[in-house]
Amino acid sequence: MHGGVEMVISSLANAFVEMGFDVEVLCVYCLGEPAYFFDSRVKITYLTDVHPNRDEFKRAVRSKNPFRVIKEALYAIKVLRLKTKSIVKAIKSIDDGVVISTRAEHSVLLSKYGKKGVLKIAQLHFDHKFEDNLLNDFKFKYNNIDYFTLLTPQMTDEVKNIMEPHNKNTKCVTVPNFLYKFPNVDATAKRINQVVSVGRFSPEKGFLRLLDAWKIFVNTHPDWCLKLIGDGAEREALEKKVREYDLQNSVIFTGMIPNDKVIEELCSSKIYALPSFTEALPTVIIEAGVCQVPAVAFDVRGPQAVIKNNESGIMVADNDIEAFAGALSELADNDALRSEMGDKACELAKYYSKENIMELWMKLLSDNNMKGDN
Asked: Rounded CA gap, 156 and 147, in Å?
């Protein structure tokens, strides 16, 4: 497992076992060792022995070989059926305790097949973007879910208003993600002229438009570099754009690196860039805040919860590339402002501690008489 949701799952599982709960993580696929640390007391169960073949199917389509396409399509259908069957079987086997679902499609199955004596909690780890399929699920397919935890107050209010006319059972509550362990940051460490951005290289993360802004910025700040941490389907397109813009001397690709190395990069950087088109609650902004790194982000809904505009970072109108470049320049050229915003970002990040957020979880569970070892 690798990604923001996986990090949240491991953090929450570890926090619960530390509090005396029995915790089991159900994974559909076994794709190798977990990328994030799990306490040895957390039981990890893999429900299938198959692997998804999304990349193989894409390659088959690009090959234009009909036999390969048919073969991969049939395998994909087999995997999908086995996946659903295994999840339903696992849900039906649980007679008591708490089940927390981390994906919308699994929450639908939890609502449909979860037993009456089980406390059923759904989570949403991404921006619903008012997509019809998700809204219909919330309205009509979550009726047996007891709690729906959302990451920001804005998202909670939106989903509550969407669900209420159709679903009187599910309670929508705000429970943000948290940092399992706050990194030790050396406030006197030397920072270089570096902007850093971390994430999956996919269209919704906006890295291509970050390069558009970087081209403008680096023209007046040739001694700065942009470090892109991550990997994904858009890497080839990103590298191509770097060559087209002649940015090879100022843009660095690191690939995937461990979280402790990400923290090291944040601590040696001066600015964080978040170019996403959509976000839920970007944990990396919290990590950047702990490292006293102010962020520049497009004004989309997720970052609004963790960036206080013009106090802990700068939000610019969505897709205003010149404004994004201008915000980078404003921070790069003003050491005092950058330091002040970094301090404020660190102060705001402290709310997202394990202790604070687990209090919210414990209140939710205690309200349902789920105290003690379960």
From this structure: 11
Q: How far apart are CA 324 and CA 309, in angstroms?
A: 13
Specify the pTM. Answer: 0.86
* Cα-based distances in Å from 53 to 6, 23, 41, 78: 20, 29, 32, 11
Instruction: Work out the mean pLDDT of the chain and round it to a whole number.
Output: 92
Examine the pLDDT at 281 and tell me if it is beyond 50: yes
252 phi, psi to nearest 5 deg? -120, 130
Q: What's residue 371's pLDDT?
A: 39
In contact, 171 and 300? CB cutoff 8 Å: no
Contact 110, 137 (CB under 8 A): no
Which of 110-124, 186-200, 260-274 is least confident? 186-200
Exposed/middle/buried for residue 81 (C-beta within 10 Å: 0-12, 13-18, 19+): exposed
Tell me, what's the pLDDT at 37?
Answer: 87
pLDDT at 2: 53
- Helix ranges (H only) for the chain are 4-18, 54-63, 66-92, 104-113, 132-140, 153-163, 207-220, 235-244, 259-267, 283-290, 321-332, 335-349, 354-366
| 305, two tokens | 């919860």
